[in-house]
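Problem 12. The chain below contains 100 residues. Write out its predicted structure in C-alpha cell notation.
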Amino acid sequence: MATRDRPITLRERASVAGRVVLAAGGGYGIAALSAALLSLALPLARPEAVAAATLASFVLMPAIVVAVFAMRSLRRAALMLAGTALVLGSALALAMRGAP
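Solution.
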C-alpha cells in the first residue's frame, strides 16, 4: 500500500468537510424539492404520486452525494446544487399555482 509523503493540509481537510456538509444538506434539499414537485406533477392519484415521488427521492439523494464528491472543486459543486435547487424551486412554485 502506498503511503503519503506529505501530511494532509488544513485546506484539504476543510474541503472534505465542506463537501460532506454540502452533500448532506444539499442532497436532502434537492431530494425534498424533487419529491414535492413530482408529487404534484405525476399524473397519478395523490397517494400513489406521493409514494412514487418519495421513492424517486431515495434514488436522487445518493446521486447528489456522488456528484458533489465527483466535482473538481467545492465551489463548482455548490453552484451546481444552487442551480438545481433554483430550477426545482421555481418549477415547484409554478406547479403549486395550479394545485387543488
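Discussion. The chain has a mean pLDDT of 91. Students who got a different answer should revisit the alignment rule from Section 12.3.
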